[in-house]
Design brief:
Elements (H helix, E strand, L loop, with lengths): L2 H20 L26 E8 L2 E8 L6 H10 L3 H5 L14 E5 L2 E5 L9 H13 L13 E5 L8 E5 L5 E3 L8
Helix pairs in contact: 2-4
InterPro entries: GerMN
Keywords: Signal
Protein name: GerMN domain-containing protein
Length: 185
């Protein structure tokens, strides 16, 4: 068998195998359990970090900051009001909160945070409200051991009498009013 014939035979064999493979069926298996999420040295205990929410072109986004021992919602909101660090600004994080030296007060109670604002919510950008609510909900030191999405943030607005506005932070980092006609979580 000559070299040319050998090349033709190998090419023919490759073509036959390729055509035979076309009839092979790939079956869908559906989702499969993969086990628990990875853990290790890079994970951080929630009580040792603050999640401070800043603005991006796509909504609010958390930045991790170290927390002092015993930190709570007030320290998290103070960090938020201080604005993004130079490194966070370099990553495109900004704030939608009004400038100035106004103080936001926060008090953690069982499964909730009472948030006292120096502004009226209707005068704030939606992202600013989400920054405040999500930072408060994600703060360490909220009694009751609830997940961030289950922490109720009760917003008290400057100059508005009456009950607080109950809000939560959803998985996208947006403030979501609670339906007060249904039982609280």
């Amino acid at each position: 068998m000559g070299g040319t014939q050998l090349i033709r035979l190998v090419a023919l064999l490759a073509a036959v195998l390729a055509v035979a493979a076309c009839g092979t069926e790939v079956r869908a298996t559906g989702p499969m359990a993969a086990g628990a999420p990875a853990t290790g040295g890079l994970t951080t205990d929630r009580s040792r970090q603050l999640r401070v929410y800043f603005r991006t072109p796509y909504g609010s986004w958390p930045a991790a900051r170290p927390a002092r021992p015993g930190a709570g919602p007030q320290q998290a909101l103070d960090a938020l009001l201080a604005g993004p660090t130079a490194a966070e600004r370099a990553r495109g994080l900004t704030t939608a909160l009004p400038g100035g030296s106004r103080q936001v007060r926060a008090r953690a109670v069982r499964g909730a945070v009472d948030l006292y604002l120096p502004w009226v919510v209707s005068e704030l950008d939606h992202t600013a409200v989400s920054q405040l609510v999500c930072t408060a909900a994600a703060a360490p030191g909220v009694p009751g051991g609830r997940a961030q999405a289950d922490v109720v943030v009760r917003v008290f607005e400057s100059g508005i009498a009456g009950p607080a506005w109950p809000v939560t932070c959803d998985e996208t980092g947006s403030a979501v009013p609670l339906d007060v006609t249904t039982p609280s979580r």
